[in-house]
Amino acid sequence: MKKRVILWFRRDLRLADNPALRAALDGDFDSVVPVYIQAPDELGDWAPGGAQRVWLDDSLRALSNALEALGSRLVIRRGPSIDALDTLIEESGATAVYWNRLYDPLTIERDKAVKQHLDEQDIETASFRANLLYEPWTVETKQGQPYKVFTPFWKAVSGRGHDAPLAEPERMPEVWSRIGTLSVDDLALGPTLNWDKSIRETWTPGEDGAHDRLERFLDAALNGYDDDRDRPSVAGTSYLSPHLHWGEISPRQVLHRLDEWLDDHGGRNVREHADSFSSEIGWREFAHHVLYHFPDTPTRPLDPRFEDFPWSGDEDGLACWQQGQTGIPMVDAGMRELWATGYMHNRLRMTVASFLTKNLRVAWQHGERWFWDTLVDADLANNTLGWQWAAGCGADAAPFFRIFNPARQGERFDADGDYVRRWVPELAKLDAKHIHRPWAAPASALKSAGITLGTTYPEPIVDLKASRREALDAFEKIKN
Ligand SMILES: Cc1cc2nc3c(=O)[nH]c(=O)nc-3n(C[C@H](O)[C@H](O)[C@H](O)COP(=O)(O)OP(=O)(O)OC[C@H]3O[C@@H](n4cnc5c(N)ncnc54)[C@H](O)[C@@H]3O)c2cc1C
């Protein structure tokens, strides 16, 4: 009897280094049926946000084209996942379902239910590690506990190394023409209002786009990574985060290609930059480790003292922050970059998160939610870790009293003001000396730059010094 296997694509939208796909092709099967199932309800509050959906729209088209080029095709169905798989099993006569593992709590729960259901039907199931270098449950402290601090975590695992990535298949078996599919358009992932144009212009979702990004980064930016990654006006980082989130490239492929590139080009200096870059991939591993072991952290602080923190509930402040209208140029520039491109530079993510949670004292969950809806790389593990870190309540958190001064951040990391000029064009003519503190600029400088505070650009919505003091006082209340 002919044996068929369903390959269930989720956030592993690639053909190379895809362990579930490789196992399906190497197994005792005549046919492999690739399927993507849209089932946002199964992800509860963490279904893909608007920007992620735009990304997914393009990424599914890219995957579908790549499968067709190999002689296969992508079958697209709507959930619930169990029902969609049952139907496809019936239609295809499949005897097995393979997938790659994910680590967020609702997906783990869903996958367990799917596995149990399929076991009961005598359908073979197998899942694989594709998204991480190290499974979260294989890493523990000497006391047998999960890690809560990055440096010892990375020290414990980075020495383990990683295997070589799996090659992309050269051909794939045809999918029976009788098996029907929805089109990507049927999923209606794009927005009804046309706000996605600049996101689509900025990015090339899909496996090819991911590898292009990596090559561009290696050739043009790796050799300055350690210095330039903090300068938001420079393309000094890899921009791989959305590609990694959707599994269009694996962390193993990234590190393997980095090693190859270093063999060809590496001097000692480049290797130092490469180590810094690898450790950022390590932060991604760490974030997934923390989320796996502390699944409540997307909504609750890891440090329980913060359950009682006196947040301000400042809704007007939150709205100004979301719209990039706080009157603090670095904050506004970051928030506008996010809105326009679905991305924000890491230095800005830290700055705007500190401003929201400390200067405005708005609960970090509100910022986390806004990022979730607007980032193309919104990732439950990385976003949760980032927000709890910035708010001072999570794993490896910056202490609460480390409050970024956004004006000083600008003077340090955007000294010539180019980043602010790009995203806050109202300030474009202001000289570098004043661009990060327009409220302190002499009237003559504002006038010659065509700026009237409160009219052409907002007055600051908070006093940075006074709000810093208030945040520290609030922290005193929960400190012990
Ligand atoms: C408040 C806040 C929210 C964040 N939300 C997200 C998010 O939703 N999704 C996301 O991918 N990253 C998030 N980050 C982490 C970081 O800002 C981005 O990963 C990074 O800016 C992506 O740009 P890049 O790919 O050019 O990074 P590079 O510097 O080139 O780093 C390479 C890769 O390492 C990983 N990485 C880098 N920094 C971190 C980090 N601090 N934590 C975890 N992984 C990291 C990413 O996968 C990234 O693509 C957040 C950080 C903060 C402070």
Topology at a glance:
Elements (H helix, E strand, L loop, with lengths): L3 E6 L9 H8 L4 E8 L11 H20 L5 E4 L2 H12 L1 E7 L4 H16 L3 E5 L21 H9 L38 H6 L4 H14 L4 H4 L12 H5 L5 H15 L2 H26 L21 H9 L5 H13 L4 H14 L4 H11 L5 H12 L14 H8 L4 H6 L19 H6 L15 H15 L2
Parallel strand pairs: 1-2, 1-4, 2-3, 4-5
The structure holds flavin-adenine dinucleotide.
The site of flavin-adenine dinucleotide has 28 residues, from α9, α11, α14 and α16.
What would you note in describing this structure?
- This protein is an alpha/beta fold and 480 residues long.
- The chain has 3 domains: 4-130, Rossmann fold, CATH 3.40.50; 132-164 and 205-293, Alpha Horseshoe (Serine Threonine Protein Phosphatase 5, Tetratricopeptide repeat), CATH 1.25.40; 304-478, DNA Cyclobutane Dipyrimidine Photolyase, subunit A, domain 3 (Orthogonal Bundle).
- Helix content is 48%, strand content 6%.
- It has 20 helices and 5 strands.
- A 5-stranded parallel sheet has the order 3-2-1-4-5, with helices on both faces.
- The N and C termini lie far apart (68 Å).
- The model has no long low-confidence stretch (mean pLDDT 96).
- Bound molecules: flavin-adenine dinucleotide.
- Flavin-adenine dinucleotide binds at residues 229, 237-241, 244-245, 280-281, 283-284, 287, 346, 349-350, 353, 371, 375, 377-379, 382-383, 385-387, 390.
